[in-house]
Each structure stands twice: as C-alpha cells, then as structure tokens.
Amino acid sequence: MDEEAVKFQINCLNNRSYIKKTVAKILAYVALWDVVSSLAYASDPNPLQDFCVAVNDSKAAVFVNGNFCQDPKMATANDFFFPRLNIPGNTSNKLVFMVTPVTVVQIGGLNTLGISMARL
C-alpha cells in the first residue's frame, strides 16, 4: 500500500470513532432527558371535579377557589350563561370602546375553569 492509502484508511477509522463517540453522547443525552422528563411529569389522575358552579350558600359542602360549590347535579345551562355579552356597550367616550367584564360573580360556572371573559 502506498502512503496516501494508509493515511486515508487511518482518517476513515478516526472519523468512524468520532461518529461513534458522537452518537453515544447523543444517546446518553436523550436517555438522560427521558429520565429527567419522566420524573418531572405531574398530573392529577383523579381531579376533585370537572367544574364547580360558584354559589353564595355557605352550607355547600365544597369550598374551592374562594367560592362555595353548588352540587354538580343541580347545575344548569344558565350557570354557564351571561345574557349581556351580546349587547354592545356605549362607545361614545375618548377611547371609543366599552368593556363588559365577566367573572365568576356573573357566571358561576367559570369557577375553577381558570378563565374570565370580556366583550370589547
């Protein structure tokens, strides 16, 4: 074999070992990430309830998010409805808009859903 062929073979072997080391490092990082992310996975497999319609009755059994909850069997569609969002507000002001905020006070069904609404 001539000298160039030997150098080429040595270079190829060095590249292969570099590639093997790189692949091994990547696999190690993926395995480490997999372990860390599986430890960080958190959930509540059995949530308390799907919704909590807020009521002002202190005799209600469950107190969630600062409000007493109505019995879920007593919930109706009106607990999730606010009739004034379809009515435009008075926009004859300097900013030329009107906000109609809606919170758990107006719609009891918003309790524990983590949302509020507003009509601009």
Describe what you observe in this structure.
The chain has one helix at residues 3-40; strands at residues 54-55, 63-64, 67-69, 100-102, 117-119. With 120 residues, it is an alpha+beta fold. The protein has two domains: 1-42; 54-119, no CATH class. The strands form two sheets. A three-stranded antiparallel sheet has the order 1-3-2, with no helix packed on it. The chain has a two-stranded antiparallel sheet with strand order 4-5. The chain is elongated. InterPro entries: RmlC-like_jellyroll, RmlC_Cupin_sf.
| Domain module tally | 2
What is the H/E string?
HEEEEE
Going by helix content, strand content and strand pairing, the class is alpha+beta
The end-to-end distance, rounded to whole angstroms, is 82 Å
Mean pLDDT: 77
What does the radius of gyration come to?
Answer: 31 Å
Quantity of strands, as a count:
5
| Total helical elements | 1
Strand order of the largest sheet: 1-3-2
User: So what's the overall shape?
Assistant: elongated
Main sheet characteristics: 3 strands, antiparallel
β-strand percent reads 5-15%
Q: What level of helicity do the residues show?
A: 25-40%
InterPro entries: RmlC-like_jellyroll, RmlC_Cupin_sf
Topology:
Elements: H1 3-40, E1 54-55, E2 63-64, E3 67-69, E4 100-102, E5 117-119
Antiparallel strand pairs: 1-3, 2-3, 4-5
